[in-house]
Design a protein that fits this description.
By secondary structure, this protein is mainly α. It folds into two domains: about 40 residues; about 60 residues, no CATH class. It is about 55% helix and about 0% strand. It is built from five helices and no strands.
Length: about 120
Amino acid sequence: MDIRQIETESEYCIALAEIEKLFDACPGTPEGDQLEALVSSVELYEEQHYPIPEPAPIEIIKYFIESRGLNISSILEYVRDIINIQHPYQNNKQPQDFGSYQTSYSIPMLLENIKLFKDISYA
C-alpha cells in the first residue's frame, strides 16, 4: 500500500482496515514501518476531521473521583490537604493584599466546581 496523506473518508476506512491487518507487525520490519506510517496518517486525519475537545474542569474532577473510587467527602479532604486554606484574618491579622485569599491554585474556581458535586452520589 502506498503511504500518503489521507484525504477522504473512504481512504480513512481503507487505512483503518490495513492497520487492523498489520496490527501485530514487529517494529523494524517492512510491515512494522508500514504500520507506523499508516498510524501517523490516520492520526493526522483524525486530528483534522474528528477533533476531541478539551474537557471542562468539572469533568476532569468527576473523572478523578470516579476513577479512584472516591466520594465527595474524600475529595474534600484531599483538596484541604493539598491547598491548606487559611482564613485571611486568622490570628487577628488583617491581610496585606488580595493575594492572601489564594494560593497558587485557583481556589475560587476549584471550590465552585466542588459545589457542583453536592447533587452527585458516589458509592
